């Protein structure tokens, strides 16, 4: 210990300051090493908790229309938040589908969502080594959407459910008619025909190959049936032809069965439909199952929830009483 008033030599003071400088240098080096270690540890932790569901999904849609966009919205909202999406719009052009498929193959996408039949067909033909989930395709069997890397969500509703509701709504229903273009829409399947027969219902159809043939075929059909079933056939059903189909059926007091709630809002008696957003959610569920490691080939096409709309005013006009059991199942009543 240095005694009070002791005079220190200049040499001793220099040595003391040099020692303190050495200590400061050591402290700085140690602090730098400690900071570096913390940084490396932080990076290690960050890497170890990287999201496992950070997949990239390529989305191909056949066209920029509301139902397709709603399905895509439902899909995105149901996928993990870490998922990234790259979208391609075919704008109704199959050639664009082939071009975009080439980009997707080179992109390293983990899965492809094909929305609409044109996108689904392009994906099936051009993409062989990436899982594909199709959606918003009304007749998958018609387009042969079968391959080891393809699964999908059907937009069709099991017809047995619809027939049961129709029988409850119209106990005397015996003959249901529909128009279709065989080049665009398949006829009702043998399974549907058999299910109808079990309920005492017969399907009667008329084929049309041009829009000009629709009025004559419709008048003939309406004289033979108890109800008219609308199909999503672009030869039969257009924005212009819907009003004619509906008014012609009304003249004969024949109820119209549709596949869109908008038809009921315009006067159809009943519509069976699926919500496009529900279809998108179903596609997301299927996609996550596949991305988690399940074989695509074992992932069957999912069926979205059936929805139903009823028009009370039309029922009253046609002299039809809607049973409470049917009314309680309706998602929309006009």
What would you note in describing this structure?
This protein is of the alpha/beta class. The strands form 2 sheets. The protein has a 7-stranded mixed sheet with strand order 7-6-8-9-10-11-12, with helices on both faces. Strands 2-1-3-4-5 form a 5-stranded parallel sheet, with helices on both faces. The longest helix has 39 residues. It is elongated, with a radius of gyration of 33 Å. The N terminus is likely disordered.
Provide a quick synopsis of the model.
The protein is an alpha/beta fold and 334 residues long. The chain contains twelve helices and twelve strands.
Give the topology, please.
Blueprint: H1 10-48, E1 56-61, H2 66-78, E2 84-89, H3 94-107, E3 111-115, H4 117-126, E4 132-137, E5 150-154, H5 159-169, E6 175-180, H6 190-198, E7 202-207, H7 214-222, E8 227-229, H8 239-251, E9 256-258, H9 261-265, E10 270-273, H10 276-291, E11 307-310, H11 312-317, H12 324-327, E12 332-333
Parallel strand pairs: 1-2, 1-3, 3-4, 4-5, 6-7, 6-8, 8-9, 9-10, 11-12
Antiparallel strand pairs: 10-11
Helix pairs in contact: 2-10, 3-4, 7-8
Which short descriptors sum up this protein?
single chain; 334 residues; alpha/beta; Rossmann fold; 2 domains; seven-stranded mixed sheet; five-stranded parallel sheet; 12 helices; 12 strands; 45% helix; elongated
- Evaluate the radius of gyration: 33 Å
Percent helix, as a range, is 40-55%
What is the rounded distance between the termini? 101 Å
The total count of helices amounts to 12
**Any idea how many domains?**
2
* H and E order: HEHEHEHEEHEHEHEHEHEHEHHE
CATH superfamily of the largest domain: Response regulator
Strand content range: 15-25%
Low-confidence stretches: 1-29, 34-50
Helix-strand category: alpha/beta
CATH architecture of the largest domain: 3-Layer(aba) Sandwich
Gross geometry: elongated
What is the tally of beta strands?
12
**How is the biggest beta sheet arranged?**
7 strands, mixed
